[in-house]
Amino acid sequence: MNFEGRLKQANSRLRLGRCGVSIEVAGKRLCLRATLPPRPGSSKAGPYQQRLFLGHHANPAGLKLAEQEAKRVGLQLDAREFSWADYGATGETRTVTDWITAFEADYFTRRQRSPKTETTWRDDYLKAFSKLPQGEVLTGELLRATIEATKPDTRTRKRFCDCLGRLATFADIDADFRPLRGHYSTNTVEVREVPPDAVIAEWWAKIPNPAWQGAYGLMATYGLRNHELFYLDFSKMPVLLVLDGSKTNFHRVYPLYPEWVEQFGLNWVQLPPCTGANNSALGHRVTRQFERYGVPFNPYDLRHAWAVRSLEFGLPVELAAQQMGHSVDVHCRTYHRWISEEVHDRAYRAMMARADRPVAP
Predict the structure, then answer these.
(1) Lesser CB count within 10 Å: N end or C end of the chain?
(2) Spatial contact of 323 and 254, defined as CB atoms under 8 Å apart
(3) Cα diameter, the chain
(4) CA nearest 311: which of 348, 275, 283?
(5) Rounded to whole angstroms, what are the CA distances from 328 to 159, 325, 337?
(6) Global confidence as pTM
(7) Does domain 197-351 match CATH 1.10.443.10?
(8) Dist. CA 252–CA 32, nearest whole Å
(9) First CA to last CA across the chain, in angstroms?
């Protein structure tokens, strides 16, 4: 029987014995999980779920010792004799590296490894965790100092608060970093210049490589994220299917403008043979090609232009958000800020030109 099977059996025995303690794997070691009294110095008023690190390796011999310890802790809790003093050297001296290793193991136990989860782990969690002094003991003060070293009211500060806050919760560290998050939102980002559609069409013709010209045309016509180019199903054209493996999994997109499907030759496009370890690497290759061909805007500007164009076409915001693969709230906060006065004027004139518009009494 493999180790996972042995662990399930051990926890089953503990449940049947009403021990109130379970065994978990944290990195390459074992720990206990139970409702324990607050640690000395904690602001918690009563017992809550915590981990108790034993130092035993995650192997059959270590599992046998962990099960014995779980029963002993269960008896101590029943007799109200549990004391953190008996375990002072098991959790308090674990280094930052130890905790990050354990957190990563737990993270991918609850999530399947995929390009999406790997990107989230690397770009969100690991970027924040890498700023911690790896050899030091993990404490609330250390986490707070790392957060305070970032610039206030920025995306980085918000990300550090979120990621290091989750690490603190995982390590049973009593800390609340929410007051440090500040007032960052996407609305604070510098205004983006969305290229006019005529300019977008003009630059399609200037790209000399047919494969990258087709990639550009797809992004302009369907508002794709960079990496989504490599997760496409063309079987329903002119409706484009974005498959599982992209950031937001499966969704379908309609062309805006539909004429560009024929004009850009998108029914028979041959995409460039790109490879990458994850979505971020694929996306970076797309950005580099835009720079190589001298395109005066970045790939995401094509996505922003599609979002603004969807409004001019009268596509309901709920449908536009679904086709872009995100929520209505994200759609409005992220893209509606780039709607120019000219777009508002055109939309108003089109409304007033409708034969069935309401007439003043």
Answers:
(1) C
(2) yes
(3) 86
(4) 348
(5) 22, 10, 14
(6) 0.56
(7) yes
(8) 45
(9) 82
